[in-house]
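Reopening closed ticket. The problem is back. First fold of the pair:
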Amino acid sequence: MKKKANEKAGEVSRRDFIKASAAVSLAAMGVSANRIFAAGSDKFHVALIGCGGRGNGALSNCLAAAKHIGREMEVVATADWFQSRAEGTGKKHGVPNERCFYGADAYKKLLETNVDVVCIATSPNFRPVHFEAAVKAGKHVFMEKPVAVDPPGGRRIIEAGDLAHEKGLGVVAGTQRRHQNGYRRNAYAIKRGAIGQILGGCVYWCGGALWYREESNVDTDADYLVRNWVSFTEMSGDHIVEQHVHNLDVANWFIGHPPKTALGFGGRARRKTGNQFDFFSIDFDYGDGCHINSMCRQINGTDGGVREFFRGSEGETWGGGGLKSEKKIEIPDFPEHGGPYVQEHVDLLNSIIDGQPLNEARNVAESTLTAIMGRMSAYTGKLIKWSDMMENKESPWYKLTLAPSAEDFEKGPVTAPEDDVAAIPGRA
């Protein structure tokens, strides 16, 4: 092999050394280095679980990322609840129908193919099961946020993420702000004391209602839930989890840890299907006197806003810009090729090639659990502690599991929760 200009005779490059060391470690665990490093070639094999709009978008972003770094990428399989979606995406990318799987167990069949990187974009209730299966099968993973709808699901993601680390597998989540230039610059500055200790702030995701499907347009309750997943807490976690998780992720990232407690409220007045709230307002207590006000709303005809703001002891900043600090900190630029949705895939693929795979499983799980904590408080009117979700096995919040679960869909027919019935906290 021809040496690079900066390599001396008898030495190997840092990248080659990392790859060799990783291969030895992985071999000791029974993991194939060829599987970890793009099937032993310059080509990545990618597959998609969840062929809806965001799934197809994530797959396109992944293909664009591979092109940017000069790697060939082939789509080898698709999986979806619906046959038409699996085969529609497959046809677009030249995947034969025999590798376009559909139904509740489609993900299992996909994971048996020669795939290196799996994009998971099913509804959030399925992600703990699908992610765990992908890791056990030895696949690198990109998964959309959020990654669970209840505390057991969030903890399952963390456990599977730890296993991915042991196996040397890359995991990147759809919290794309962590790969966006402006946010990364601010996070870099905050970590180096640009605004001192964060004392408080506010995070918002307020906008209009999302799409919904009428029950008459589907054949079974399972079909109705899968098509109308953004309307049911059991499928999406409610919009505080499915959408507002982005802003809460920024708060956890900038502050450096998840909150200790959540106390809030919300309500339902406008929705036409499902059982979710229209709005939430939550006080997240991060300890040391730091409180973050969280507000999210999905109501048409109201003013919107998607943003984050933090005030520190020595300055202030918005999430992705607007840093005000008296300190002189040299902040580097961070790459952002094709926008953050592509950059997150660039970062994943480059980390695999370098033998230092990224692992964002815990970050996205903790941000998802933060949102779940806020939702549970609003639904019940109770103050919810982080420790009761994560440590106290006697707590009802630790055990709280929403149904139908992902496993229920695989066992047979499921019954959809009633439409237009939502939680009402307290008593008259």
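Second fold of the pair, where the issue appears:
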Amino acid sequence: MKIQNSNISIEEFDQTKFLIEMFEPIEEGEAILTHYLNNISNGVSEIYAKDASKIINNYILYKQEKDNISIVKEDALQQFLFKIENVPFPTPKKTNFDFIDLFAGIGGFRLAMQNVGGKCIYTSEWNNDAKKTYKVNFGDIPFGDITKQSIKNYIPENFDILCAGFPCQAFSIAGYQKGFADTRGTLFFDIEKIIEKHKPKVVFLENVRNLVYHDKGRTFKTIIDILENKLKYKTFTQLLNTMNYANIPQNRERIFIVAFDPNQVPNYTEFKFPEPIKLTKTIHDILEKDKQDDIYYYKKEHPYYEELDKTMTSQNTVYQWRRVYVRENKNNVCPTLTANMGTGGHNVPLIRDNFGIRKLTPKECFMFQGYPKNFILPKIANTKLYMQAGNSVTTTLIKRISEQIIKVL
């Protein structure tokens, strides 16, 4: 049997390559392994250690049986560790607080929290394409569907901050008579249960602006009621716009909720949302200067070209195609990026450059959300990347709010 230590890959735990008859695969194996490796030097790793050890032992046997390769467990661990650390945004070595990242998407909360000294000890995201983007940038593969108890069971007992850019589903009206809307069947219910069990010091939530006005404000009132009256947290809420609070030229307004456990954070009253800052960046600080791939440009024979050419007269703003007409952004910033902007004829952000009329590239959309240039976009369909950018938080705005939270902690 030959000895070979170079052919070791975390990717073999993706539930397809590692599904072999002789070994029983462990659900969420890749998430368990990467979470274990990212926490191997602290007590958090204990929650992942048993299953991670089984996965590694099975993998060594798999290599022996299938590839005739003998691997020492310590060598396998070292090479796995190298892989998760050799990413653009690895877990920092020195950190001041722990957080969990729910409905994590592509990691906007994580990027911000790591930048202010945080360590992510658990992350969850159901979308497989978003998981790929998350993994190549942070070295962790998120756990899956947080509504499953088996997924919740891997959340470490203690952590400081719960982060969640949770989807807003319609709340049932059935519970209003009881003082709370019935949150069963909604994703906020899962956040509520996690808070109730783990009692983090801080809860940090983000959602679309319309959450505040949904169902005549009753949905938002229900969330605040549950946080304050049932879970006994003290809440702060504010609508913040990316262009006014993050120095990013995108018109994007979102609601932010920051809630403190007063028993653990007695000075919670000192918290304040960040002050507005002057927008000094323009779209030209983000847009690529060179000609982009032809796939992004509208050809003259395109049925919309005549209308686009007539309306799009400036190179100093981002326009938006709205199914049947062009919308100009008079404030010369990018309109709100949406999840459906890559699916065809609606909400498509467009610019005129020196080479013609084109769509924004996925990379530009990510930068309009505050992601740095070295943030990696995996090789998946552009429609998926556009969706990820549109669903993301503006990570630089999250960072500014996080700095205010840390001041209180």
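Update: turned out to be a display glitch only; the data is intact. Residues 1-6, 18-23, 169-180 have pLDDT under 50 and may be disordered. Residues 46-67 form the longest helix (22 residues). Please close again.
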